[in-house]
Design a protein that fits this description.
Keywords: Acyltransferase, Transferase. It comes from Catenulispora subtropica. InterPro entries: Acyl_CoA_acyltransferase (IPR016181), GNAT_dom (IPR000182), YpeA/RimI_acetyltransf (IPR050680). This is N-acetyltransferase domain-containing protein. By secondary structure, the protein is α+β, with helices and mostly antiparallel strands. It has a single domain, classed as Aminopeptidase, CATH 3.40.630. About 25% of the residues lie in helices and about 25% in strands. It has a 7-stranded mixed beta sheet, sandwiched between helices. It is globular and about 40 Å long. The N and C termini lie far apart (about 35 Å). The C terminus is likely disordered.
Length: about 200
């Protein structure tokens, strides 16, 4: 189903939150952002979010936020529905998310990825994200997540020159695998009672 046309990207409205929650559940199961979590974080960060759609509906999203350090942004959740995977939608959505965060004076972008999710890891790596820490037991015992970071240039390169593709990103001293209580490395997002907060 669907076409091979690239997605249309647009900002997110409150009425889109149920579609995002459904896609999070499809992509990440019980570790996905719930409708309750999306409701809580929409007002402070919804301006950074993106939807990817075609004539048949919404098939991808990127939920982004500014961290406690105003120059650090987080990609909290990004997914493309299985029916639209393999068409370049993930690359388009990731590039648009990076651009949107960079336009808001953010110069470091962080995200979490499961070590065994090689497809996502390779996508992020191809954009210049590097390993910068680990969150041990982030979603419960044995549910560790790698922290990947992308350092964005704050200066435009001189005309005719390009910036270095993969700048070095220092390890965040707060992402050392310690327990998360009290750690303020990323935005704290309430989860349902049975789930940890997302950061």
């Amino acid at each position: 189903m669907g076409t091979n046309e690239p997605p249309r990207l647009r900002g997110v409205l409150k009425e889109d939150l149920s579609a995002i929650a459904d896609l999070e559940a499809t992509a990440f199961g019980t570790n996905g952002l719930t409708r309750n979590a999306l409701d809580v974080i929409f007002d402070p960060s919804g301006a950074f979010w993106l939807l990817a759609e075609d004539e048949e509906g919404v098939w991808g999203h990127s939920v982004n936020a500014r961290g406690e350090d105003p120059h650090v942004g987080w990609i909290l959740g990004m997914a493309v529905h299985p029916e639209r995977q393999g068409r370049g939608w993930g690359r388009i959505l990731l590039q648009a998310s990076i651009d949107r965060l960079q336009d808001s004076d953010i110069n470091v972008i962080r995200l979490l990825v499961k070590r065994t999710n090689k497809l996502a890891y390779r996508l992020y790596e191809s954009f210049g994200f590097v390993d910068s820490g680990e969150r041990a037991d982030h979603f419960g015992p044995g549910e560790d997540r790698l922290v990947m970071s992308l350092l964005l240039s704050t200066e435009k390169p001189p005309k005719g020159q390009s910036s270095p593709p993969f700048p070095q990103v220092p390890v965040d001293p707060q992402d050392t695998g310690r327990t998360l209580n009290g750690v303020a490395a990323g935005p704290q997002i309430p989860r349902d009672d049975a789930q940890k907060w997302y950061s």
